[in-house]
Amino acid sequence: MSTLALLFLVLGLGLIAWISARVRASRFVITGPASQRPHSLPAYHAWYVGLWVAVPALLFLAVWASVSPGLVTQAVLATPAAAELPSFGMERAAILGEARALADGSIKAAFNPKATALAPAFAQALGFYGTIGAVVALLLAFAGGAYAFTKVKPDFRARTRVERLVMGALLIASLVAILTTIGIVASLIFESARFFSMVSPIEFLFGTQWSPQTAIRADQVGSSGAFGAVPLFWGTIFVGAIIAMIVAIPLGLMSAIYLTQYAKASTRRWVKPILEILAGVPTVVYGYFAALTVAPALRDIAVAVGISSASSESALAAGLVMGVMIIPFVSSMADDSIAAVPQAMKDGSLAMGATSSETIRKVLLPAALPGVVGGVLLAVSRAIGETMIVVMAAGLAANLTANPFSSVTTVTTQIVQLLTGDQEFDSAKTLAAFALGLVLFVITLLLNIVALRVVKKYREAYE
Amino acid sequence: MENMTETLKMTARDVSVFYGAKQAIKSVSIDIDMANVTAFIGPSGCGKSTFLRTLNRMNDTISGARVEGRIELDGEDIYASSMDVVQLRARVGMVFQKPNPFPKSIYENVAYGPRIHGLAPAKADLDRMVESALRKAGLWDEVKDRLNESGTALSGGQQQRLCIARAIAVDPEVVLMDEPCSALDPIATAKIEELIHELRGRYAIAIVTHNMQQAARVSQKTAFFHLGTLVEYGDTSEIFTNPREERTKDYITGRYG
C-alpha cells in the first residue's frame, strides 16, 4: 500500500471516529441542574476521539518513514545478490539508489545491470516493511480509537484534554522558529570557527585590505587573499546607517508628524496605505530603480558639477534608495510613539497658549523620543541587513572612503559574491561569508535588543 | 456694589456648543469676575466641563465642535477673528482634571509658558518667574532643592500644584480649573482648596467640580448645570441654603447625580 493511500486511510478513520464520537456525545442528557450537565460539548468529545485515532498513527508513520529505508537496505544487503556490489564508494550508492528506484517503479529500466539484479530483492524488502508499517499504523489507529471511545461519557473532561493538546501544538509551532534560529546561529558559529582557524580574527576585524579572491598560481597578485573586513563594515555603515538614515529619519519623522498632527482624517485615509505600499515593494525592484535610474542620474549630476571621479555605482545612490525604502518603517514607528503621548500632555501645552508647532517640538517629540529612537535603531538594523539594493547599486570595490560618489561595498554584497557560483566549501574565501554573516547577525541582534528595550521602557512610562 | 462691573472679567451670553449635530450646551449666560471664585456643578455629562473649555477655546482642538453665542474677555469677543487664540490662552490659563506635567524637570515645566511667550529675556528673569509661580502655588518649599528633577516624579497633589504653577507662570487674568482635585486624596485636595483661596482676587477663577462640599467651600458664586442648560446661577450661599429651582435642590441634597 502506498504511503499516500495509508495517510488518507488513517485520516478517514479519524473522521469516522470524530463523527461517531460526536453522535454518541450528542445523546447525553443536557437537561437538569448545571452540576449534572455533561462536562464538555459534543465537539470536544469528537475531537478527543478523532485525534486519538489519527495522531498516534501519523506519528508512527513519520518515524517509520525515517527508519524503514535503512531496514530495507540492510535486508537487501543480506541477500546473495548483494555480494556482487562494490564494497564502498559512490558506485555502490548509485547502484543501490537505482535498484530502489527500479523496485518502487519510479524508473522503468536501470542503466546498471547490477541494479537490475538487485531490484527483486528491493521490491520484496520494500513490500515487507511497507506492510509492517501499514499494519502497525492501522492497529495504532484502532487501538487509540477504541481507548478514546470508551472514555466518551458525560462526566469525561474532553475539553480540558483537547485544549491541552492544542496548547502543545502551539508550543511546538513556536519552538520550530526558535530551534531554526538556534540551528542557523550554530552553523554560522561553526563555519566561522573554521574560517578563523585560517585567518586571524584580528586581521579580519581590523584589517583594511579586502581581496578574497585566492589565486590559482603562486605568482599572482593577492595570491594569499586578504580578509580585512573594515572596508566592508565601513561601506555597510556608510550606506545603511549614515546615508539611508539621513534620508529616512527626517522624512519619516516629518511624515509621521504631519499624519498624526495636521492631516485630516480623510487625508490620512489615503496617505497611510500608500506609505505602506512603499514598504511592500520588493527590494529587488528598489535595486533596479537604484541601479538603472538613480545611480546614472547622480553620476551625471556629479560630473556636471565637476566631480570627475564619480562612479556609476555609488554609495549615495544605494543609500538614497535604501533611505526611501526605510521611510515607511521609521514613519510608522514614529507615528505610534507620537500617538502614544497622552492627549492630556498636548492639551496642557495648548492651554498654555503654545502653538501646534511649539507643542510638537517641545512636548510631543521629547515625550515620543525614546520610541522614535527605538524605531530608528530597528530601521538601521534592517538597512544594514538589506541586500538587493546594495548588490545592484553600491558596487563591489572595497573602498575605504567617505566620498559618497565613489563605489563602496557592503557585508551583504560580499556574502552574495562569495557564495554565488560553484564554491569549494573548505576554502577561506567561502568560509569568510559565514564570518561576515556572523558579524552582521551579532550587530543586528544587538541593535534589536537595544531598540526593543528602549521602546518597551518608554511604553511603560505612560501605562 | 458699583465696582462689580469693573471687576467683571468674562461674560458669556447665550452660549451654545455643538458636537456635530448634538447640542452639548444650550444658551448659557454666565459672568466670571475677579473678586469671586465661580464654581460649575452638576451631574456627569451636564456640559460643565464643555462650557469651561469654551472660555479659552480649548474646544477648538476637538474636531466637529462649534460654539454659538458671545463670550467676552474684558469686553472683547474671544471668538472674533481678530482674537489670537495663542494670546487668549496666555490670558486664560487652564488646569486639568488629571495632573498633566510635561515629562521635563520641575523648572522646565514652570518655565514652559514664559519661554514660549517670550516673557523672560534673561535667565535671571526666568528664575525669578519660576520661583514666584512656585511660591504662589505653595510648592516652592517642597521642590526648591530639586528643581531639576522630573515633574512626573512628584506626588499627585504636588503634580497638580505644579500644573497650577505652570498655568500662573505666564501671569494670566483668568484661571480655569477642570475638576482639579478629582484625582487627588483628601489631604492634597485640602491643599489645592487652600491655594484657590489664596489665588482668589489675584485671578478670576472658574472651577468645575463634582464635589458639592468643595463648591461650597471654595466658591462665592455657583452655577448649576443640568443636561446642557444652566439651571441656576447665583451666590453660593444662596444656592446651597435656599435654591430657587427644584432640580437644584434635588441635586444638592443628593437625590440624583
Describe the protein.
Chain A starts with a helix and ends with a helix. Chain A is built from 15 helices and 2 strands. Chain A folds into 2 domains: 3-156, no CATH class; 220-462, MetI-like (MetI-like fold, Orthogonal Bundle), CATH 1.10.3720.10. Chain A is flat, with a radius of gyration of 32 Å. By secondary structure, chain A is mainly α. Chain A has helices spanning 3-25, 42-77, 90-103, 113-151, 158-198, 201-206, 230-262, 265-280, 283-304, 315-340, 343-351, 356-385, 388-393, 411-419, 428-461, and strands at residues 210-211, 226-227. Chain A has a two-stranded antiparallel sheet with strand order 1-2. The longest helix of chain A has 41 residues, at 158-198. Helices cover 74% and strands 1% of the residues of chain A. Chain B is of the alpha/beta class and 257 residues long. Chain B has a single domain, classed as Rossmann fold (3-Layer(aba) Sandwich). Chain B is 37% helix and 26% strand. In chain B, the strands form 2 sheets. A 6-stranded mixed sheet of chain B has the order 6-7-8-3-9-10, with helices on both faces. In chain B, helix 5 (123-136) packs across helix 7 (156-168). The A-B interface holds A 265, 342, 344-355, 358, 362-363, 366-367, 461 and B 56, 58, 61, 63, 85-90, 93-94, 96, 98, 100-104, 112-113, 116-117, 163, 166-167, 170.
> What is the name of the CATH superfamily of chain B?
P-loop containing nucleotide triphosphate hydrolases
Please, how many helices of chain A?
A: 15
Rg of chain A (C-alpha, Å): 32 Å
* Overall SS class of chain A: mainly alpha
Helical percentage of chain B: 25-40%
Principal-axes geometry of chain B comes out as globular
